[in-house]
Structure formats: C-alpha cells, structure tokens
C-alpha cells in the first residue's frame, strides 16, 4: 500500500493518509488547518474511518488541524511526548507502536534535532521523517530546542540504519520533489551525505535562515492541537 500524499502550497507541508488493504481504519500525519475540508473529503471519498492523527513535532510554519479532526471524527491525537502538547490523548515515546486497522503497525522513532521532541514514523517500508530528514536536505536546527548534533545522530544512527529501499516521505518540500529512499539520501543528501559531525554542524551554523513568519502564532496553537485556548 502506498501512502496518500497531500500538499499545502502555502507552507510547503506534506500531509499523509495511511490505510491498509484489509480495513477501513486510517491514520493522518501532519494535517494543516486550512486543508481540513480537503482532508475530510479524501477520507469520506475513500470510505475510511480516521483512527489517529499523528504529529511529527510542534510545527512553526503552519497550524495543525489535529484538534478539529479529533472533534469531527473521534480520532485520537498522537504526539511526541517531548513537544509539550498536553491535550493529546497519546504521548509517544521512542520505540512505541501504533496499531490500527487489520494488523497495521506504525513504529515510532524519536529523531530529535529539528526540535527536541521530533518523531519519525515507519509503516510498511515507508518512513515519515517530518522535518528531521528532507529530500536532499534536513530541517533547520536553530530554534525550538534544535540541535545540529542531535539531528546528525538521529539521521546517521536511526534513519540511515533503516533498509536502504525504505521510502522517505518528508514533512516539507521546496523543490518539487515528493519521495526518496534511505539509500539515495545516504549517498547524495547535500547536507548529510559523507559529512562528519563537525562538517555538518558547520553547514547548519552557516545557513542564516529567516525566522518563520508564523512561529509566534503556530507554536502556541499547535501545543493545543491547533485549537484556540478554551475551545
């Protein structure tokens, strides 16, 4: 089964819907607030029931629709335990397994670096890497408890140890790309391939990226599953 990949042009965010062949239960990863109706339409069109809403981290560039999806569908919200999102029913830790559908399992990997709590999810030979590992790049490490050192470890010691044919589905893309593999990124990733820890840290320190425009709105909202306080 292939993931259903959906794109938000405003924040260059990918959202994913996962469902197995023998069940109507589905999982959605990193939904975006203003795409709520689109995502619900996909779920309805395919005859699916949403079981879980997964977040890879507390995003700084868009607001999640996790809280609204939970209210409308009865799905449970699953979030990294280190991201400070207390309203979620399920606080995930490294090594946890999410079970849904007819024997479907999602393995939870703690992959800090972009943020201290960032998680990646592995399902049926597919790795959903959030902002930890992008196609030919990686997430920034200069805010939200980010750490180039931690990201280097997350990628080299966890993600790059997955089978080389594991498909990578990133949290964002800015270059018109949609999917890669562990093997390709190990050999070709512009920031990480064949670099030492020191070299990688130097690359990240030299980026000088602008502050995300929505960070002051998005992070507090996402720590409440995208809902305004009191909602």
UniProtKB/TrEMBL annotation:
<feature type="domain" description="Metallo-beta-lactamase">
    <location>
        <begin position="12"/>
        <end position="172"/>
    </location>
</feature>
<dbReference type="InterPro" id="IPR001279">
    <property type="entry name" value="Metallo-B-lactamas"/>
</dbReference>
<dbReference type="Pfam" id="PF00753">
    <property type="entry name" value="Lactamase_B"/>
</dbReference>
<dbReference type="InterPro" id="IPR051682">
    <property type="entry name" value="Mito_Persulfide_Diox"/>
</dbReference>
<dbReference type="InterPro" id="IPR044528">
    <property type="entry name" value="POD-like_MBL-fold"/>
</dbReference>
<protein>
    <submittedName>
        <fullName>MBL fold metallo-hydrolase</fullName>
    </submittedName>
</protein>
<dbReference type="InterPro" id="IPR036866">
    <property type="entry name" value="RibonucZ/Hydroxyglut_hydro"/>
</dbReference>
<keyword id="KW-0479">Metal-binding</keyword>
